[in-house]
Amino acid sequence: MVHKTEIHAQSQSLPGQEALMTPPAVFIRNDYLGSRKLQDKVALISGADSGIGRSVALHFAREGADVVALYLSEHDDARETRRLVEAEGRRCLLIDGDLGNPEFCRDAVAKTIANFGKLNVLVNNAGTQQVQKCLTAISDEQWRTTFRTNIDSMFYLTKAALPYLKEDDAIINTASINAYVGPALLLDYSATKGAIISFTRSLSNQVVGKGIRVNAVAPGPVWTPLQPATLGAYDPQLLEDFGSDTPMGRAAQPWEIGPCYVFLASLDASFISGQTLHPNGGTVVNG
């Protein structure tokens, strides 16, 4: 039985740090046994310094993949991701920079190819959110920043990576339950996550003939640094018993999300493209 993580009111500043979270996040189960599903693959993961991205990196490494971890500026968190990946016996290249800059995205892919000689799995996971109660309170700058971080980056990075992907390779995009339920406090964030679902479906139809699969994961509430740095920064009480409104009555730990990406990246998902997995604690969204 998975026990509920007791989460209490707290706050951080963006982009958030794993070391400041109480309780700490858990990224992979000790009893998770890799079975070479991604042996000698190379995965490029954005937002891999913490949260879901770090969990994906560790699960991929345990399944035999080398990892390129993209991140903005959280150097300590990124170095910890590298340490954990290397402890699994795999290589990890760290690249920091702004994914909203198309030149950075092209450079990150070029460094991936230069260091590893190939690219098999692209995980578009980087994201941000800010809380506002009313549309009129969302500044033009906030709107642009949210779209630049969450959807523009996905376009730039995928465009740069696509020429290197081949048959049986995969693209996995991180969406959110919020694309389906539309929370009042996260209007611009939810709009980007809806765009990610549509991007996933259309791109899947574009590249399916090449044998490249494109899917998404739409998590529910997950205990990551983004929560105290956004919800908590707006009102620390928003994190009191975070996730208790799900049917399971709790938030997920990142280790519960990472295996979804393993499945979609591996040939276990060879007949799946244009789809979305919903690890959300039991909420039925029919999408």
Automatic annotation (TrEMBL):
Pfam families: adh_short_C2 (PF13561)
Parts of the chain that traverse the membrane: none
Keywords carried by this UniProt record: Oxidoreductase
Domain of life, per lineage: Bacteria
Molecular-function annotations in GO: oxidoreductase activity, acting on CH-OH group of donors
CDD domains reported in the protein's UniProt record: SDR_c1
Family the UniProt entry places it in: Belongs to the short-chain dehydrogenases/reductases (SDR) family.
PANTHER family per UniProt: NADPH-DEPENDENT ALDEHYDE REDUCTASE 1, CHLOROPLASTIC, NADPH-DEPENDENT ALDEHYDE REDUCTASE-LIKE PROTEIN, CHLOROPLASTIC-RELATED
Protein's name in the database: Short-chain dehydrogenase/reductase SDR
Phylogenetic placement of the source organism: Bacteria, Pseudomonadati, Pseudomonadota, Gammaproteobacteria, Oceanospirillales
